[in-house]
Structure to design on (194 residues):
C-alpha cells in the first residue's frame, strides 16, 4: 500500500508541477485560467516533466547519499550543509518545468533553458529558493528532534510537515513560473533593444 501511495503521489506531483506554469502563463497573458486545459497540457508533457524530474531527483539522491553517511556524527551541521549545497546546485534546474510547459519543449531542452535563465539571474533565483530551503532545513531539524528527542508520533510529525509544506509548496509552484516568464520576457526585450 505504501509503494502504491508513493507512485500515486509522484505521478500527481508531476501533473501538478506542469499545471502551475500553464495557469501562471494564462494569468499573465490575461487568458481565462482553465484547470482542464492545464491538466490536459500537463498530461501531454508528462514524459518531458518526468524526465526532468528524474534527472533532478538523481542529483538530490546523490547529494543525500553523501550527506547521510555523515548524519550520525554531526546531524545539525550535515543537514544544514546538505540544504545549502542542494540549493546552490538546484537553483540551476528550478525553471525546468516552467520552460517545458511555457516554451513547449522536451526535458533536456527545458533543463538547458532553466540553467541558462538561472545562470543569468543567479542572485535573484537563489534568493527566491532561499526561503523554502530555510524552511526545509528547519523542518528537517524539527522532524529529527521530534522523532529522536521528544518521541512524537509519526502522525504528529506528518501533520506539522504537511501544513507547512502546503503553504511553502504553493508559494514555490506559483513564484517559479511567474519569475521564469518575466525573466524570459525581460531577456527577450533586452536582446531586441541591443
Amino acid at each position: 500500500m505504501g509503494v502504491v501511495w508513493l507512485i500515486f503521489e509522484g505521478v500527481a506531483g508531476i501533473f501538478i508541477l506542469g499545471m502551475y506554469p500553464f495557469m501562471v502563463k494564462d494569468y499573465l497573458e490575461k487568458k481565462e485560467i482553465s484547470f482542464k486545459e492545464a491538466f490536459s497540457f500537463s498530461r501531454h508533457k508528462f514524459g518531458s516533466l518526468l524526465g526532468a524530474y528524474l534527472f533532478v531527483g538523481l542529483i538530490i539522491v546523490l547529494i543525500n547519499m553523501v550527506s547521510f553517511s555523515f548524519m550520525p556524527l554531526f546531524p545539525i551541521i550535515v543537514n544544514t550543509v546538505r540544504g545549502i549545497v542542494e540549493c546552490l546546485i538546484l537553483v540551476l534546474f528550478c525553471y525546468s518545468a516552467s520552460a517545458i510547459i511555457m516554451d513547449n519543449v522536451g526535458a533536456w531542452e527545458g533543463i538547458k533553458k532553466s540553467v541558462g535563465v538561472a545562470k543569468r539571474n543567479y542572485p535573484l533565483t537563489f534568493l527566491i529558493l532561499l526561503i523554502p530551503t530555510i524552511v526545509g532545513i528547519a523542518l528537517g531539524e524539527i522532524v529529527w528532534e521530534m522523532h529522536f528527542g521528544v518521541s512524537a508520533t509519526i502522525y504528529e510529525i506528518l501533520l506539522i510537515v504537511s501544513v507547512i509544506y502546503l503553504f511553502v509548496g504553493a508559494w514555490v509552484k506559483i513564484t517559479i513560473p511567474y519569475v521564469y516568464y518575466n525573466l524570459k520576457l525581460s531577456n527577450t526585450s533586452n536582446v531586441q533593444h541591443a
Q: What stands out?
A: Residues 145 and 151 are 8 Å apart (CA to CA). The helical segments are 2-28, 35-44, 46-68, 75-90, 96-102, 107-120, 122-148, 154-193. The mean pLDDT is 84. Residues 2-193 form one domain.
